[in-house]
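User: My collaborator sent over this chain with a note saying "see what the structure looks like." That's all I know about it. Can you take a look?
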Amino acid sequence: MPSNTAIASQYLINELLASDWIKTYYDQYDTRPIILVGNLHSMGKTNWELITIHERELAKNSQFRIIRPYFNREILDAQIASNPSLQKTLTYRWAKSQGADFILLGGLNPPIDSKISTQEKQQVLYLSLISIDQQKSVWEGHHIY
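Assistant: Without extra context I'll predict from the sequence alone. Here is the result:
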């Protein structure tokens, strides 16, 4: 049985696929876009489970291509940690060096209210698809679970 995070991911990926960014890109370039799942975060750290879940969900679709970067994500995290003000620049440069047209960024926000019991707490999975060339979001979504 899929985890709650996997179900939230499926929901958001379905929303992403229903939006018009793929058609717009294909009409302009006459090829399938290439997506890289960026470093998705939870509690301020790269969350490998989130990255794997989203790569798996996106790989099920043939409207675009997924690339899994060979450049070590931990090196990118270290570069960002030493130069936080350059986070966007470093991330976009990394994605472009991997051949991506778009990068999927986001993460998992923990519950804010510490007075709510653990079983009642809800988490928010948020995602943003960024055009590498335009360096702007072409789609954003979130799911509370």
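A starting point for your reply to your collaborator: Residues 32 and 64 are 5 Å apart (CA to CA).
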